[in-house]
Amino acid sequence: NAGVTQTPKFQVLKTGQSMTLQCAQDMNHNSMYWYRQDPGMGLRLIYYSASEGTTDKGEVPNGYNVSRLNKREFSLRLESAAPSQTSVYFCASSDAGQGAPDTQYFGPGTRLTVL
Amino acid sequence: RKEVEQDPGPFNVPEGATVAFNCTYSNSASQSFFWYRQDCRKEPKLLMSVYSSGNEDGRFTAQLNRASQYISLLIRDSKLSDSATYLCVVKGDSSYKLIFGSGTRLLVRP
Question: Do the Cβ atoms of B95 and A106 come within 8 Å?
Answer without folding.
Answer: no
